[in-house]
Here is the input.
Amino acid sequence: MSCCGCSKLEDGKEIVDHVTRKGKENMRVKVAHEITCQCGEVFVMETLVTNCPKCQMTFGVTHCGSSDINKIKPAGINYAS
Here is the structure.
C-alpha cells in the first residue's frame, strides 16, 4: 500500500516539493543513510530533506521510501521549493 501516491515521485525536485508542501522536511528518516555527494563529501542523512554540508546540494526522500537509500534523490544546490 502506498502512503500517499509518493511512490510515483522519482525526480529530486518533485520529492522535495512534495515533502515540503506537507511540512515534513524536518521529519526523521526511518533509517539514517550515509550519503556520498557528487562533490565527494560523505555525510549522514537523518531528515527527509537534507543539504550536503560541503556544497549544499539538497537531497530529498519521502518518509515511506526513506528506508531505501536508492529512493534518495538530489534536487539541486540549495534547492528550496
Q: What stands out?
A: The longest strand covers residues 28-36. The two ends are 27 Å apart (CA to CA).
